[in-house]
Amino acid sequence: MPDFRIKKHPILPVPERKNIQFTWQGKSLTAQEGETISAALFANGIRIFGHHPKDGSPLGLFCANGQCSQCMVIANGSPVKSCMELIQPGMDVQPNDGLPALPAVDAVPEFAPIPEIDVPVLIIGGGPAGLSAAIELGKSGIQTLLVDDKHKLGGKLVLQTHRFFGSTDAVYAGTRGIDIATRLENEVRQYHSVDIWLQSTCLAVFSDKKVGILRDGVQYTLVKPQILLVASGAREKFLAFKGNTLPGVYGAGAFQTLVNRDLVRPAEKLFIVGGGNVGLIAGYHALQAGIGVVGLVEALPECGGYKVHKDKLARMGVPIYTSHTILSANGTDKVESVTIAQVDSHFAPIPGTEESFECDSVLIAVGLDPVNEFYLKARDFGIEALSAGDAEEIAEASAAIFSGKIKGREIAKMLGSPVSDVPPVWYKTGEILKSKPGKTYFEQFPDLAEGVMPVIHCSQEIPCNPCAGLCPNGLIIVDKKDIRSVPTFIGNNYCCAGCERCVAGCPGLAITLVDYTSNPDRPVVSIPYEFTRDVISAKDIVIVLDTQGQKLGSLEVIDVHTIPSSDRTMIVQVAADREIAPHIAGILIQEANITHPMLQYVKHMTDDTIICRCEHVTAGEIRRLIRDGYRDINEIKTVTRAGMGSCGGKTCSPLIQRLFKEEGVPYNEVTGPSRRPPFIEVPLGSFAGEKREAK
Asked: How many CB atoms are located within 10 Å of the residue 59 CB?
């Protein structure tokens, strides 16, 4: 069976781990110790994890975050979410086909009293916001319980190989997300007053002001906090299109989990839906993992993510189709192609603009919703509660770090800790870090072709200032009061020392260096490069591009090197004619044949589009009820089972609301779905105190 593991990565180390054996449908396969079942299956080329009981359609991984049940398998006789369950030696894994047979009862289960504990502070979520808050509370010596459902702290930071934007003083800007996660974890573990529960899931918040937590996946525990901080992040939005449940359709988080955490290659040719930062960054991560990116569609006239992220993809050869949408993912048991179309000003597909592209995977990155159910329920029940990070407001991870820091200090003050008040400047910094991209300016190029000159290809107002601290002579300026200003080079042509620190350290890889000193007519251009070194070397011929992805020519590589402060970013040098040298922003990474459309597009359908992934309820079924006068989503749930699945209606409810809008029904006439605990599925025996072995 083929091996889909990533053996070499330009940023991530590939650790040596012990191989273990498990069985899939009775066949012995090899996994690696410490990885999830889903990662082990993907590494062995298995994409179909089961079939839906309603229509027999294939099921595969979608969120990799425990929020849905698409990746359910039967492991040692029990149904488990393969993305959350670690593989064990000798584990017998079977597809989730139909209902599993109930195990024979050999003995009456043993039960124990449900443990109950009181804590001053309970933090739900061990991502950037939760960790930052716990650090502030640890500094004050306040007893804090930090709970996270993963087997490793860091949240989505552990998936981010790129350097972070933001403020170098406030939030580790210029440092890679994977390294920030390690720093935060190391710091929080220094404080003995912070207790950490991993692989422990918050299930519900109750009216008696207690929080139910499944500790280590087996021990149900009731925790009563004085103050609850919800830092549980966000969940990805779903999108309705034909073929949206085919194996090979992933949320962006699932794709990044497989590639950057599990070091498994889930695709050969990927198509991306969504031009926010999540989709743009995921495309770059795919290229680093050796995966072809066929294209990216964004329904808006312009991508909503940072321009430097968009430019980075464009100059590496990824086509970006703005004012376009996906019509369908095509295939029988897996994704084989995707069909897209241009949209009008009302986002309706324009007939005659359809195109199809061969691909084996579709990445969905169309926005996030806060995971704030615990916060809202706590407020309903009179629990002192706060939220931080994406659970409070969707923004970048740098904003989540600072948000958690502020909330940690506020909670310490609420509990009477002798700490100073939150400095007013912190709130201002927090708002700046949350801000969306601002004005875009025309790219500026040097007036004189002399000396050594950094060319800053970053022309959009975003909260970021690492470049200002990289120049040893202080020649790159970003407004200290508002780091959203566009960076400016203030030196004359002879002040730049040519150290290349700005080239290697810019988070957006948006600075090149043009050196005219040796040959003014054919200067040397230094270009940042974050791909494996064996792909490019001196004397190779490369195609160079500008920020828009336009080809400027084919040039010979003079040198490939690193500098002491490069942090895994290499620098490629080429010599170019003086007319094009300042315009060079990057090197073409992938071949053009990956991005060519098919000769004929694959037609799509609408009413059979799946709206509820868990129960496979179609748009047509729900539309008929709306036209019959149904206005209560709970009634639609009763008739169709939409929202009754494992995700608890978290993904389909917004889509049902959208169907009401499409049918001309105002939101104020629609009754929303009731929210009831538990948050995720859990064995009933856990609530009764059944004794089970820890994972």
From this structure: 25
Burial of 287 (0-12, 13-18, 19+ CB in 10 A): buried
For 220, list phi and psi in degrees, rounded to 5. -75, 130
Report pLDDT digits (tens) over 473-512. Answer: 889 999 988 999 999 988 765 578 899 999 999 999 999 9
Residues 6 or more apart whose CB falls under 8 angstroms from that of 561 comprise 570, 571, 573
Which of 628, 595, 575, 161 minimizes the C-alpha distance to 397?
A: 161
Classify residue 250 by its DSSP letter. E
Q: CA 33 to CA 17: how far, in whole Å?
A: 6
Side by side, the strands of the sheet bearing 355-358 are 324-330, 337-342, 355-358
Any residues with CB less than 8 A from the CB of 300 and at least 6 apart, and which? 275, 322, 323
Which residues have C-beta within 8 Å of that of residue 568, sequence separation ≥ 6? 10, 11, 176, 530
CA atoms within 13 A on the CB side of 633: 26
Q: Is residue 633 part of a domain?
A: no
Same-domain check for residues 96 and 242:
yes
Q: Interior CA angle at 269 toward 265 and 275, to 5°?
A: 100
DSSP state of 221: E
Is residue 441 within 8 Å of 512, Cβ to Cβ?
Answer: no
Q: Three-class SS of residue 590?
A: coil
- Whether the bond between 418 and the residue before it is cis, its omega within 30 degrees of 0, is no
Average pLDDT over residues 522-549: 91
Q: Which helix (H) or strand (E) holds 284?
A: helix 277-288
247 and 304 in a single domain? The answer is yes
User: What would the mean pLDDT of 247-271 be, rounded to a whole number?
Assistant: 94
Residues 224, 238: Cα–Cα separation, whole Å = 34
Q: How many domains, the chain? A: 3
pTM above 0.85, yes or no: yes
351-374 pLDDT, tens digit each: 999 999 999 999 999 999 999 999
User: CA–CA separation, 362 vs 334, rounded Å?
Assistant: 10
Distance of CA 491 to the CA centre of its chain: 38
Q: Are strands 234-236 and 219-230 parallel, antiparallel or unpaired?
A: unpaired
Q: Which residue has the higher pLDDT, 658 or 633?
A: 633
Q: Distance between terminal CA atoms of the chain? A: 29
Return the CA Rg of the chain. Answer: 26
The amino acid at 20: I
The closest alpha carbon to 88, from 40, 48, 16, belongs to: 40
CA of 229: how far to CAs of 120, 410, 466, 573, in Å?
11, 11, 31, 49
Edge to edge, what strands does the sheet with 452-456 contain?
Answer: 452-456, 511-515, 524-529, 570-575, 551-561, 541-545, 586-587
| Residue among 631, 633, 619, 645 nearest 672 (CA) | 633
DSSP letters along 128-182, please?
HHHHHHHHHHHHTT--EEEE-SSSSSSGGGGG--SBP-B-TTTS-TTSBHHHHHH
Residues 259, 146, single domain; the answer is no
Q: Which 3 state secondary structure label does DSSP give 544?
A: strand
3-class SS at 424? helix
2: in domain: no
Query: What would you measure as the largest C-alpha separation in the chain, in angstroms?
Result: 86
Please name the residue that has the structure tokens 């895994």.
Answer: 568
35 and 131 belong to one structural domain? no
Neighbours of 627 (CB within 10 A): 10
Q: Could you tell me if 389 and 132 are in contact, meaning their C-beta atoms sit under 8 angstroms apart?
A: no
Q: What is the pLDDT of residues 445-457, one digit of tens each?
A: 877 678 898 999 9
Domain of residue 57, residue span? 19-100+238-364
Per the domain annotation, does 632 fall within a domain?
no
Indicate the helix (H) or strand (E) that contains 660: helix 652-662
